């Protein structure tokens, strides 16, 4: 890094101090150690009727960076997280979806979450993939939905029916994309809506999966 860039970085740190999203280290948006910890280890997590490729476990540095991206107004963190998501999509293509074109369909957040965050984080993850993708926004939330963060397993599944609607998509092949899978209720609801609209939902990919989800 040149002297000019170092000076600019120092000036920005005074005006808008940053801390590492993973460990809290000062003056680093993502320190080298935490960047190395964002190492994908993609695996297929089966849900009933839907194969989900998860890049990593939702724990440690991965969890901290995801939370910082979503709750800390730090959309730039989408890029290192998308670098993890890419190998999960590759694994899904090798083991589940096979050859052929697919649409990467983001699972939408509630309107309130988008307003608070200021951006659609899953769309940004797709746009920042190593092989840049374009989000195919076929899904939307239906009715009065609440954010499922913090809800228990039973409550998540109770909200599953009619949670999403999908525009008509006969013959389209969809891969659903989200940041985290916990109980799986959200992905299954999205898949139900897409299939009802005529799409072939061939799988899903996420940055992280909780331990809880693995035991479904």
Description:
With 216 residues, the protein is α/β, with parallel strands linked by helices. It folds into two domains: 1-37, no CATH class; 40-214, Rossmann fold. The chain contains nine helices and seven strands; from the N terminus they run ααββααβααβαββαβα. The strands form two sheets. It has a five-stranded mixed sheet, sandwiched between helices. Helix 8 links the parallel strand 6 (173-181) and strand 7 (200-209). The longest helix is centred in the middle third of the chain and has 20 residues, at 78-97. The chain is globular and about 50 Å long. The termini are far apart.
Brief descriptors of the model:
two-stranded antiparallel ribbon, 40% helix, Rossmann fold, 2 domains, 7 strands, 216 residues, alpha/beta
Short description:
This protein is 40% helix and 19% strand. The chain has 9 helices and 7 strands; from the N terminus they run ααββααβααβαββαβα.
CATH topology of the largest domain: Rossmann fold
Kindly name the structural category: alpha/beta
Give the topology string: H per helix, E per strand: HHEEHHEHHEHEEHEH
Task: Kindly report how far apart the N and C termini lie.
Answer: 48 Å
CATH architecture of the largest domain: 3-Layer(aba) Sandwich
Counting DSSP E segments of at least 2 residues, the number of strands comes to: 7
Strand content: 15-25%
What's the CATH C level of the largest domain?
Alpha Beta
Please report the number of helical segments: 9
Mean pLDDT: 85
What is the percent of helical residues? 40-55%
**Main beta-sheet annotation:** 5 strands, mixed
Shape: globular
- Radius of gyration, rounded? 18 Å
Strand order of the largest sheet: 1-2-7-6-3
Which stretches are low in confidence, meaning pLDDT under 50 for 5 or more residues running?
4-15
Domains (count):
2
């Amino acid at each position: 890094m040149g002297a000019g860039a170092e000076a600019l970085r120092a000036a920005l740190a005074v005006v808008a101090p940053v801390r590492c999203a993973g460990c809290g280290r000062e003056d680093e948006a993502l320190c080298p150690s935490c960047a190395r910890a964002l190492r994908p280890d993609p695996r297929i997590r089966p849900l009933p009727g839907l194969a989900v490729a998860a890049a990593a476990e939702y724990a440690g540095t991965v969890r901290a960076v995801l939370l910082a991206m979503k709750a800390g107004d730090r959309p730039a963190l989408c890029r290192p997280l998308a670098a993890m998501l890419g190998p999960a999509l590759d694994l899904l293509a090798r083991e589940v979806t096979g050859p052929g074109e697919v649409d990467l369909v983001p699972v939408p957040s509630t309107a309130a979450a988008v307003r608070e965050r200021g951006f659609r984080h899953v769309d940004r993850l797709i746009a920042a993939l190593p092989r840049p993708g374009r989000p195919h926004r076929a899904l939307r939330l239906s009715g009065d939905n609440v954010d499922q963060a913090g809800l228990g397993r039973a409550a998540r599944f109770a909200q599953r029916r009619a949670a999403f609607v999908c525009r008509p998509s006969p013959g389209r092949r969809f891969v659903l994309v989200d940041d985290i899978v916990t109980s799986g209720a959200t992905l299954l609801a999205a898949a139900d809506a897409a299939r009802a609209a005529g799409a072939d939902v061939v799988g899903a990919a996420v940055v992280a999966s909780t331990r809880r989800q693995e035991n479904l």
